[in-house]
């Protein structure tokens, strides 16, 4: 079967599964803030709309300056991209023909970007408890590492001390360490890695603005790294890569600290509700600290029957067929509105009967 490579756009999975698509669906395959975009975006939409009649700033100076100021970094350490996917693609070009280690299970775009650019890709899997064991990393000849933190698809988070230790290990071996923080702002106990970026020229952070602020249609992300790394990547980037509406929306979203805190509190409350149900009903979940998690029925070796059951009821999980190491053994589910989460639980009760 030709499995869709990502979540969202549920018609693709219904076509692949040859299942009629219901009129009403709950899409749990995309990890987007269930509270929707900040209200300021709708309020300011007329002014954002006006920006489409002019070419965007190819250097995204205003947004870069705003991020630099917020993080206490030099502007030369900030790069704006057309979503995290573009930034990953540019890193693939920078690592062309190098040996790259990917820590899995993880986002499939790292592998794709590296393979397209002729990299030698090697892999290391998290342990049975989804933890990262630095002493077992296969670092011989490796020139770059991709690590997703919080991890996608598990939602598991690796602490600051471990990231610092890995950064030191990579620095001593002259290895680039790319840390994808696409979901960092959902993590309640997050400790900023900015001090590491400032002190380690080999460390690169990728952040998305589309998940927390529910603007995936605008495509917006940024990268934080040493100025020399930024300049190399900028030379690869297409002119006018990021549109004007996205840049202006990004400036507004950076001011939404209260929105972020409200989101974290909401996600925590709903996650606790969901996980209590799963424990009671005998489902197994990954110990997520974000807005998504892995789930499986331990009575099934593969989760395809449960996946199809939910699809036929208009509930769309994310398949895991293209997550190396867990292919089809779990389903990934996003935390959505309280009502949508309750509908998921009702469906799972029916499944257990």
TrEMBL record:
Cofactor dependency: pyridoxal 5'-phosphate
Record domain Aminotransferase class I/classII large: where: 24-348
Pfam families reported for this sequence: Aminotran_1_2
Keyword Glycoprotein: no
Annotated EC: 4.1.1.81
TM region positions: none
Keywords: Cobalamin biosynthesis, Lyase, Pyridoxal phosphate
InterPro entries linked to this entry: Aminotransferase_I/II_large, CobD, NHTrfase_class1_PyrdxlP-BS, PyrdxlP-dep_Trfase, PyrdxlP-dep_Trfase_major, PyrdxlP-dep_Trfase_small
Pathway per the UniProt entry: Cofactor biosynthesis; adenosylcobalamin biosynthesis
The protein's enzyme class: lyase
UniProt catalytic activity: O-phospho-L-threonine + H(+) = (R)-1-aminopropan-2-yl phosphate + CO2
Any single GO BP term: cobalamin biosynthetic process
UniProt xrefs under Gene3D superfamilies: Aspartate Aminotransferase, domain 1, Type I PLP-dependent aspartate aminotransferase-like (Major domain)
Molecular functions (GO terms): pyridoxal phosphate binding; threonine-phosphate decarboxylase activity
Protein's job: Decarboxylates L-threonine-O-3-phosphate to yield (R)-1-amino-2-propanol O-2-phosphate, the precursor for the linkage between the nucleotide loop and the corrin ring in cobalamin.
PANTHER family assigned: HISTIDINOL-PHOSPHATE AMINOTRANSFERASE-RELATED (PTHR42885), THREONINE-PHOSPHATE DECARBOXYLASE (PTHR42885:SF1)
Protein name as catalogued: threonine-phosphate decarboxylase
